[in-house]
Amino acid sequence: MSEGFTPESLGAKLEVVPGEHQRLRQGVLGLLDISAATMANIGPAMSFYFGFGYLAFTAGLASPLTIIAAGVAILFLGNTLSEFTKVLPSTGGFISFIGKTFGGRAAVTTAILTGAGYIAAMASVIAIVGGFFQMILQNYNVAGLKSVPWIIWVLIFLAFAAFMMIRGISISTKLAGFFFAFEMVIMVLVSVLTLIKFHSHINFQPFEPKNITGGFKGLAAGFPLAIYLFIGWENSAALAEETDNPRKNVPKAVFASIIVMLVAYTFFAYSTVVGFKGNNTALSSAAIPFLSVAKEVFAVALFFAFLAGMTSTLGALIAGTNSQARLIFNAGREGLLPSAIGKVHSTRRTPVTALFTFLGLGLAIIGIWGLGHIIGGHATSGSMSALTMFVESSTFGTILLLLVYGLSNLALPFYYKRHHAEMYNPIRHAVLPVLGILWILVPLYYLAKPGQTAPFSWYPYLALAVVILAVIYASVLVKRDPAIGDRVGSIVADE
Prior knowledge:
Helix content: over 70%
CATH architecture: Up-down Bundle
Number of strands: 0
Strand content: under 5%
CATH superfamily: Amino acid/polyamine transporter I
Structural class: mainly alpha
Distance between the termini: 24 Å
Shape: globular
Number of domains: 1
Largest sheet: none
Radius of gyration: 22 Å
Order of helices and strands: HHHHHHHHHHHHHHHHHHHH
CATH topology: Amino acid/polyamine transporter I
């Protein structure tokens, strides 16, 4: 028997990768699948509906420029994710990349920050699924249903989404992709009809920097929300293990998704400005500007725009949970988080425990948020609406995710210098990551700056508390289990 196949050497390999037997179903997704899932996770209708009004309020008629600036920032991040995936495709995504670079403590800390950030962001999506459906019922005055609390609809749609995700990654990804295709077709049609109807107001003012309200300050103020429009762009990395040829397809999906969303958002923003005839006061005061424009264009267009918003929230819920739950699943599989999270269904090969943990914690956040509003009353925002929950929870989640994005950019040059020096490129592996860090500092500043109203004024301190607790937990865990650093990223997607 050769040395490579002795029982002793085989046992040593199994000891290094204790979660190897908990593999997801490999190679069942193609490039189109993960690209559609990524864009469904972004949820263009959902994100644009609830975000563009504030962008118009901060940047004025030239608010499309805020979106373009955010898209450029995300492209820098896309470079980092793509470069890591080319050499280390992993379901752990940023957790594996940062851990492989800076060690076990950094990996565990990143796992907690990533999990907390995505769960907080997904809690906002969970809430808006029910809230938006309630909005549709109220808009069309559906008797007997319009007064049903939005949390009831949340539970119904959440049960449907969970059932589809448990059935398998292939069917749930295709469903999310269908939802995404529907919302995009509707939004493009409404935007085209808007430009046709209000063609006399078509001009280049939305792309002229002089029309940004407050100059750079106005553009930067809306920058955090513009960044949030793209959250989910990294979806495909967590699907690497289930993707055919992940080293090539994941980078392609990342850049394709970012570019498509950048072009789409810019087009939607421009047509919405035109639809308001360049009246920024009316635009920034509208609850959901795109729906207001759809109503002006055609009554049927409004109905389909509502449907697009509904499919968008469902698609984002399914695609987002699918990918983000896999991050904490992998962390459990490799021992960074409790091992129970790192289990797969024996036949469907889906991370059932991680999915339920992810969604359960998201629901818990909604419950705590609701309790806080009941106790605190107007000390918080004074509103128990799903839209309020969406804004507040997504804002906090974005802070944590920006920290993770920053760490991943910082890690890239060190990782390539240490592990792939022969492939090191100063532009891709140093200059672009540094530019990515600089772009991230802008939204971080505006999310953490003093003088904001509650609960936003609490978030920097809450985020700092999460970081401190994560570091303490990581230090204790690594001291008890020094082999964690070796297990990080040990389960490679295509091996």
